[in-house]
Amino acid sequence: xxxxxxxxxxxxxxxxxxxxxxxxxxxxxxxxxxxxxxxxxxxxxxxxxxxxxxxxxxxxxxxxxxxxxxxxxxxxxxxxxxxxxxxxxxxxxxxxxxxxxxxxxxxxxxxxxxxxxxxxxxxxxxxxxxxxxxxxxxxxxxxxxxxxxxxxxxxxxxxxxxxxxxxxxxxxxxxxxxxxxxxxxxxxxxxxxxxxxxxxxxxxxxxxxxxxxxxxxxxxxxxxxxxxxxxxxxxxxxxxxxxxxxxxxxxxxxxxxxxxxxxxxxxxxxxxxxxxxxxxxxxxxxxxxxxxxxxxxxxxxxxxxxxxxxxxxxxxxxxxxxxxxxxxxxxxxxxxxxxxxxxxxxxxxxxxxxxxxxxxxxxxxxxxxxxxxxxxxxxxxxxxxxxxxxxxxxxxxxxxxxxxxxxxxxxxxxxxxxxxxxxxxxxxxxxxxxxxxxxxxxxxxxxxxxxxxxxxxxxxxxxxxxxxxxxxxxxxxxxxxxxxxxxxxxxxxxxxxxxxxxxxxxxxxxxxxxxxxxxxxxxxxxxxxxxxxxxxxxxxxxxxxxxxxxxxxxxxxxxxxxxxxxxxxxxxxxxxxxxxxxxxxxxxxxxxxxxxxxxxxxxxxxxxxxxxxxxxxxxx
Amino acid sequence: xxxxxxxxxxxxxxxxxxxxxxxxxxxxxxxxxxxxxxxxxxxxxxxxxxxxxxxxxxxxxxxxxxxxxxxxxxxxxxxxxxxxxxxxxxxxxxxxxxxxxxxxxxxxxxxxxxxxxxxxxxxxxxxxxxxxxxxxxxxxxxxxxxxxxxxxxxxxxxxxxxxxxxxxxxxxxxxxxxxxxxxxxxxxxxxxxxxxxxxxxxxxxxxxxxxxxxxxxxxxxxxxxxxxxxxxxxxxxxxxxxxxxxxxxxxxxxxxxxxxxxxxxxxxxxxxxxxxxxxxxxxxxxxxxxxxxxxxxxxxxxxxxxxxxxxxxxxxxxxxxxxxxxxxxxxxxxxxxxxxxxxxxxxxxxxxxxxxxxxxxxxxxxxxxxxxxxxxxxxxxxxxxxxxxxxxxxxxxxxxxxxxxxxxxxxxxxxxxxxxxxxxxxxxxxxx
Lengths: 620, 432
Prior knowledge:
The structure holds two protein chains of two kinds. Chain A is built from 25 helices and 19 strands.
């Protein structure tokens, strides 16, 4: 299609940009189909195929643009199709709907109303994406670009202004000035640590040594978090551009991206991006004629959560087991292969071109006093609108959960929102008005973390949740230091005893004691923050622990040993569905007679509870 | 010197220990009538000074040349009475003790039975002593040195104990180094001490102790002689190194072209790598430049191709990349992406990310475990299914999510049966 010619200067780049933009008619209808992971799981690829076929059939090739994009954020409602330039938003699109969309919307300029989003409260149908509450309250400075490009097309990225910041930097901003800009912007690490990025870059630049490295941390191990994946899959060049700028500022000629093993599509798209960038000359020697040379290698994880920790990650790149080391010698001085290394999170790098482009003043006007810019969160769990949301720092949790998230699913009652992954904590209803901010979240015992936000309702048991997190970390602990390795094992044992009705009063004190030791004596952050979910649930949900220990009851109805399933004789109609579905044949009864569950055989799987249409199965 | 047997029997009351259960007077009368018994006495405490004196007096009086003392266990006063007898001029080996306390009065309640038993014991002792020959104690010169064979921890400790007691020790070890099995261990049980921390000081001491002569890389070839005077031949195996000059710097080992294991390990019989596998692995190694830093990527490529890491291939890697098999296993067992056992045709991954967990993923996992009769991480015996958990696939809107191969499903425990049926009914790879 395009002849690819290496760009030897900023001028070449601008000429290319003009060329691409003139070839792209923005007035033509553009069908943007989301093929992010969530939508793909819901069948987006078939939708894409049918679109391509139908467009061909109707002779519309050349009259419409199609974009197969990365994640657009509203995963709950996928597969998503957005028609530009109007921004008409269709959700839950099936292959069978495609011809109707083409016929009605593309050809006849009509709306297909059954594919429109419907406000669950007012019943009102909303046509445009920007009016939908989920999107309305967001500020998608980073993520918004996902909808405008195909992630495997570098030309698309250039079209929307990509590599403009790199070009400006190479053309006349000195490394020290770049670092000053980043410092003044207030950008803080988006991986969870929240360390001031500019400061990190400055220390690395000052460190001794000719060989330096920059690394993109794409390990994203927090369960429930998938923002980095969506950026890597949906807009890899934004991260790459940030990396190249950073490398120039620090003085590194080699970079790595470490992607976790579970993200093959991210690796695929990033590989395509690297190849394309090399062809254009954004990577390699003498980038845009500046004399600066830089290239990137891809390194894949092996399925270890601890490899998200910077020293463990570097060990993994070196081909060793991912065991962290003590950080009294900082990685900015001695990191990868003992050379000065700057490691930043995917989202952090993605913010860099934006800051260079719009300026540090503009950036520092977004957010709170100490936490600048926007943050992408993965809002998941028992909330109506699950997906990826980007909001300015300072937005309250309540706004996120209710205004954007649409409140709790199925009309249940909110119980807690968990932030910060396994290192974070559970925040109760009383604290929902806290603004999202690195320090404010830490004050209540949680943390920002990488941005996972899991909403829980009355049917979640907080003791069970604490046990889940401790169990997760126990498996992922590298095992090097005793406080973490043994502490997690013991905490898990005690929590299991509590969940199975054998808890004792003194268990709480024992656990708090263990938590303190782990916090003070563990080698890395995994062990140091491991007890946070436990401590926050103890602080805010003590009554649930008491119920488990004293009364041997699970108020939320989750802990199997403490609950019983039984059939309400007044409601049971004897339809026999539960008996059929029971996987251990624990239910007996004649047709049209009241059925009973044998408590000896019952394994508390909950299938009968799920299938009974008469609400006759009781869980207590 | 009278060659006639003149036996003296001395019966002790031991206070009431014997006398309350055994009729000592009746027994004394009985003993007097035994063949060759010249004197038979009883006394309250035979081991006391007056008791001992009594024995000595009677020996002189009656010219006794064989003595029986019927009292407690020889372990108690055997030596006492032997000395008494010796002092009185009788050969101490013409002496016998009849234990009528521990073996009679202390274990019976019935006086009649106990007395009869005591009589029987004494009669036996008298018969025995009448057959005893006088013995002379001799002094034989003994070479005050010890041969210890084997320098594991037992041999090392024994050598040190003996050497510290002032005797010379020859410690022979067939391996080039002392230490044995303990030097191959990390910790000891149950104290969980560091094995090397305990062992190595002793290893060092045994090499430097002035009373120990260490013969390593040597074997005992012949032993002759007798206790206290053995003659041993030790063969020192050729080291081709002058042990007096060698400092152990190791420079020679680094240039030696021969790979030699002094004690070949018993490895499980390993099939050499198949020709077609060698081609595949060679390509992978080339792609990653045979570089140790790329070990994880190399293992990933192999894991992807074979669905697990076969041991013969890992062994091949260790040879080709010049890194130890242990190091490769260190990496292979650290990362959960690698499997050391063959995986099934279909991999079922249950997402246990927080969002899916909060929506009930644990119940889904349990139901699958129940239906497939395997636990998380295992493969069914027919190799159709492997069950794993994974943390966050990024499809939280679908949660709980289960991925089978590349297909995503939103699951509830009630739908598991149907899902499994779908894959069971599909033709197996083997039958295709």
